[in-house]
Design a protein that fits this description.
It is a single chain. With 452 residues, the protein is α+β, with helices and mostly antiparallel strands. Helices cover 50% and strands 7% of the residues. The longest helix is centred in the first third of the chain and has 19 residues.
């Protein structure tokens, strides 16, 4: 009875409905997704209970339980990789709200690495081969050092050598790292405390790596890569009495990255309040950086957002001051006011590179957005006749401790979804704190501006 009203539809008409769904939604429909008529009508008319057979007749690839064909997933993965300009991580899928999500690739291909392999993006290396590469790396490092390589020394090179990370290696071999080293390089000694280290040699090594990387100041993990056999965090602290980032400050450089290995978020808040009380006012970015007991201001930004946000958490009345940079009103090179130091830095990048830009651009002026949309875009830029929409999510964090942060993240995620739903994701450049504090602006923008 339920199928009578569809008797006038031919089999080709039914197949056309499946094709229409694919064109409108960009994915092959599962049997549960097809409506008016339902899949029951198709099963009756085509005399089969296998949905994939019907899809094949429609000229579409068969699907798995989530409704995505293998070919479709590969196509989307290649597209997303080209957009990013690098191999995407799980966090990239989350940050850009990409669908299909990372887990779909894992379930369909067995692992994300296998999906990358089938897409021709990165060759898949079996676990057995990675274990061999791990052993070879330990042997190479051991022979160069004359001892067991430390965990940090191994971790700084495992990825570039197509090996396993230390934790995976321990798990696969069901053994502790030092025991693995003992089996591979039995004639060498374990990496115990070395009294031969001295502060001058450590600082000299760090300074040489800074010079290699300048004007980009390397994070600790980048320092290990540049040095090849850099000093461990514990060694630096033991023989120098201060951390890697504190050494950078003594050398006159502003650290990048985080120092939270020694400070919890509660401690960072306590330090901020302490500095505020000492100064009897809200501190500037330079004052935070020069403070001996505070983490660097990029660290505060990556965890809490701007100074205004930190003040809210600390129950401190926020008073803007144009003479301060981090979280305060400041000016760009054109003399226009900016809401934060990061905004002025990014705007100055546009100015220095002759990129046409509009700040605080109205969402209702963007194609496909509602004329009633009252939101403001950070920047609309035009480069080589191409239009891009730029948002810097300066307060974005995975922390769930503060209601303010949760609200901000929800609003940011909604912006990403809205651009995607309006078909403009390819023209978007979303910048998150982790990227801003660990990459140069050239590294952030060039993959978008210079792509064909």
């Amino acid at each position: 009875m339920g199928t009578n009203k569809y008797m006038s539809l031919t089999k080709e008409d039914l197949l056309d409905k499946i094709r229409e769904f694919y064109e409108e939604n960009g994915k092959v429909p599962s049997s549960k997704e097809i409506k008016n008529p339902t899949s029951i009508v198709y099963y009756n008319r085509f005399e089969t209970n296998k949905w994939n057979e019907i899809l094949t007749l429609a000229g579409l690839f068969p699907v798995h339980e989530k409704g995505y064909s293998k070919e479709y997933l590969i196509e989307k993965l290649i597209e997303f990789t080209k957009k990013l300009g690098k191999i995407p991580t799980r966090q990239d899928f989350k940050n850009y709200n990409v669908s299909p999500c990372h887990d779909v690739y894992y379930k369909k291909f067995g692992s994300f690495e296998m999906a990358l392999n089938e897409a021709g993006i990165k060759k898949f290396i079996p676990t057995e081969k990675r274990i061999e590469n791990s052993k070879a790396l330990i042997k190479k490092l051991g022979e160069a050092l004359g001892r067991y390589p430390t965990v940090q020394e191994y971790d700084s090179q495992w990825d570039s050598n197509n090996a396993l990370c230390r934790r995976d290696l321990d798990r696969k071999l069901n053994s502790k790292y030092n025991d693995i080293c003992k089996e591979i390089i039995p004639n060498l000694k374990a990496n115990i405390v070395h009294n031969g280290y001295n502060k001058d040699d450590i600082i000299k090594d760090i300074l040489s790596c800074v010079k290699k990387s300048f004007p980009i100041i390397p994070t600790y993990s980048e320092y290990l890569e540049l040095s090849g056999y850099g000093y461990t965090y514990r060694t630096i602290l033991k023989f120098c009495g201060i951390t890697y980032n504190e050494i950078l400050k003594e050398l006159g450089y502003i650290p990048r990255g985080t120092t939270t290995i020694r400070r919890s978020k509660d401690q960072m808040i306590y330090d901020f309040i302490k500095l505020y009380k000492e100064l009897e006012r809200i501190p500037t970015a330079d004052e935070i950086n020069s403070c001996k007991y505070c983490a660097s201001h990029p660290t505060y930004a990556s965890h809490f957002g701007g100074i205004e946000d930190i003040c809210l958490i600390c129950d401190i009345e926020y008073i803007p001051n144009e003479n301060n940079g981090f979280g305060y009103i400041t000016k760009d090179k054109n003399g226009d006011y900016c809401k934060s130091h990061a905004e002025s830095v990014i705007t100055n990048y546009f100015i220095d590179n002759a990129i046409t830009y509009d700040k605080e651009y109205d969402y209702f002026k963007i194609p496909n957005f509602s004329k009633k949309d009252k939101r403001k875009l950070d920047w609309r830029i035009i480069y080589k006749d191409k239009v891009f929409y730029v948002e810097y999510f300066g307060c974005y964090t995975n922390s769930k401790n503060a209601k303010m942060q949760k609200s901000y993240v929800q609003k940011a995620d909604k912006k990403v979804r809205d651009f995607k739903n309006n078909g403009l994701l390819d023209q978007c450049i979303f910048i998150y704190p982790k990227e801003y504090h660990t990459k140069t602006l050239e590294e952030i923008f060039n993959p978008y501006l210079e792509r064909e």
